[in-house]
Amino acid sequence: MNNLRSHRPGGRPRVPLTALFAISTLFLTGCQDGAGTSNTANIQHTETTEHNQTKRFQGNTSGPLTNTADSFSKRSPANQTLETPKTLVWSAPLTREDGSSLAIGQIAEYRIYYRLKYKDRFSVIPITDTSNTKYPLTGLPPGAYEFSITTVDAEGLESRRSESVEINLI
């Protein structure tokens, strides 16, 4: 015992630094949070979980929880990205080609002209609901398309085609 302590000139014992470190380490390891686990364990668990998630998102499927986490991520709406279909959107014209006004009630339909870029002929999609100025591009086979729109008035006169828009549907 005399080796661990030495006395100061005033008679008080001096404790070596290594003994203080060992006592403080024991005290810190004994500290627990309200759940009865040590803070050190929580931090290590969090780091391990974050590490496994990082590996999973990078495409690595190794690790003890990967299969459970991967099957969960496939079912979890938070991890899924929903693809929104591409949509053509246009504004109803306010004037005719000659510059005279065109009321919304005078529009009979819109016509969407489309084709695959490597084809010569256009196909037509008539839109008779003139309050609808958007069209989702669903049901078309994948490819590079060209779209343009015309307006047909109540008398059957059709406008020139709008400028073409090129859209890749993959």
TrEMBL record:
Region of interest (Disordered), residue spans: 47-80
Organism from which the protein derives: Marinobacter litoralis
Residue ranges crossing the lipid bilayer per the database entry: none
Protein name: Fibronectin type-III domain-containing protein
Polar residues: bias regions: 55-80
CDD domains, alphabetized: FN3
InterPro entries xref list: FN3_dom, FN3_sf, Ig-like_fold
